[in-house]
TrEMBL record:
Organism of provenance: Streptacidiphilus cavernicola
Entries under SUPFAM superfamilies matching the protein: NadA-like
Cofactor annotation comment: Binds 1 [4Fe-4S] cluster per subunit.
Cofactor: [4Fe-4S] cluster
Protein's name in the database: Quinolinate synthase
Binding site for [4Fe-4S] cluster: C135, C258, C348
Reactions catalysed, as given in the entry: iminosuccinate + dihydroxyacetone phosphate = quinolinate + phosphate + 2 H2O + H(+)
Pfam families: NadA
Record-stated family: Belongs to the quinolinate synthase family. Type 3 subfamily.
Main location: cytoplasm
Localization, UniProt: Cytoplasm
Amino acid sequence: MTTNGARPGTLAQEPAPTPLALLLLGREADTASERGVDCPGDLPAASDPDLVARARAAKAALGDRVFILGHHYQRDEVIEFADVTGDSFKLARDAANKPEAEYIVFCGVHFMAESADILTSAAQQVILPDLAAGCSMADMATAEQVAECWDVLTDAGIADTVVPVAYMNSSADIKAFTGRHGGTICTSSNAQRALEWAFEQGTKVLFLPDQHLGRNTAVRDLGLSPDDCVVYNPHKPGGGLTPEQLRAAKMILWRGHCSVHGRFSLDSVNEVRERVPGVTVLVHPECKHEVVEAADLVGSTEYIIRALDAAEPGSKWAIGTELNLVRRLAKAHPDKEIVFLDRTVCFCSTMNRIDLPHLVWTLESLVEGRVPNVITVDPETEKHAKAALDQMLALP
Ligand code: SF4
């Protein structure tokens, strides 16, 4: 008998650790990021029947000094206390437009809190209620890996022609890299405009870190061929590509993906069409290309919300995005049939780390004069990341 799928007669070997080896909560921690960290202090028990009352009381005691942001993918119990809801960029801007709020409690994930820190004033502190709320996609591109990639592009003689475009869902380090190299940030709403702008500045784009959003936008919206795209794998020498492949490509896609949207498959689309005759399939552009091609409509979270607001009563929809949002949309539109695209549960596990106990602990800590879990971006990183964010705001 062998284990780990090793052939008889061979030794089963552990795979070599990658720079992003899994860090188990409570066992190891990477203090430079959210990975593997846990919250200091004692959280109230999730079963505490007074949690809602405690959250209300602490929020009321803080008044205008606190502003709570709730990302669309957060749990209902957290959204209930949000002053505003939205996608990550809208929330960061909402926080910047609320300068009287000393404390910005970001109910979302780590990269979102970083963006809020970049866009808010030095007098405001951005707090992430659970430091373990990271984003697996953002973690798929580290500063070291991206610097190494740039060296590969330089050695291939093409770095001068490449414009980096980084998705909002990336760390502050990656945004800063993008700013330093004359690129732009994009969201899922403006990715087309960002790519069009980038192709006016250079002849190639390095798209970070979501290969699916990059490919879907390039092929569907810009009319490029899938063959114009190559995937750079940071775990392989040279990204797993030859210099010739890099020189021939127009889109160099980073090998990253969202672990929620990446789960939807062509089978999910085919199955729901059989299960719900007459259904309109609407998916997020972080889904795989084959899923996006098979769907009826594709759009960002904000687009999905608007499409369902505008939908006819009695219409049937299958939505391919995070489950917390889909369930809230179904509740908000009882006159329409709204189902989740996949039968299997598909929450974002890191978004779900922010729960009511963490929110109560955060608010009560602030009431007691302690400021927990502050997310700060160093000034040098902030300067370059802000340049890339400003370029996005200046997109035509
Ligand atoms: S839904 Fe995907 S991109 Fe968004 S935080 Fe979760 S893993 Fe990251």
